[in-house]
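Hi, here's the filled form for the chain we discussed.

Project: internal
Contact: R.S.
Residues: 292
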Amino acid sequence: MIILDGKKTSDDIKDEIAIAVQNRRAKGLKIPHLAAIIVGNDGASMTYVSSKVKSCQKVGFNSTLIDLPEDTSEEQLLHEIEALNKDKDIDGFIVQLPLPGQIDEQKVLMAVDPDKDVDGFHPVNVGKMTLDLPSFLPATPFGILELLERYDVETSGKDVVVIGRSHIVGRPMSILLSQKRKVGNATVTIAHSRTKNLAEFTKKADIIVAALGIAEFLTGDMVKEGVTVIDVGITRVPDSSKKRGYRLAGDVDFESVSKKAAYITPVPGGVGPMTIAMLLKNTLKACENRDK
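And the returned structure, exactly as it came back:
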């Protein structure tokens, strides 16, 4: 069993990006600039955005954090987005989700300039991705592709089950793995909350991507020997033995599934760090696109 180490792989990618930034600086080219908007004080979102800012510093990017109060109106947020769209120094930016209830997330995502949409959520980028045209890929699926590629996990002709159909992970993951690409050419099944006899599908799968948000849902009796398992989930599970009062668990019961798996991602330290690395990669690409 081989651990797909997202932390080490993401560090390798950040080192590669840092070299690219140094080369740009030496040539007198623009330094990539990533901005992030966060609304409210959701703990997980604040932690995530903070790690993005630190990652920008590590690779030599410029970064801007716009921290707005919980009661920010939709109009105010759209005004901030428009300002970033027009700011020629900003190469890419993200609006951290989830947003407070008074704000329409879809309207916000639609307002982002597709050329600066380094999260890959805008319909223009989603459409280009679906048609296999150059675009910003959603950071988490992009990170999974990169992890599979760097560990030489064969996907061509393999049976893949993606558990979860979200627009952020499940659906784009299913499209990308089915496409004619180096990490692709797979036969993909999307499973979800209405799927009957889910274990019948997962037991046949060569590769499983678990992205449904239920802690330790996928167990060892649901998979076959030699399976590759990508665990996208991360949930705080109460645990009085821990100093923080909880432990972090993925969608996969690591203890039982790892005994059968050929490759598996840990939680934490698997997909999460890759998501941030690919956000940086998209930002570098956005900056390079403006060179042309």
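Let me know if anything looks off before we file it.
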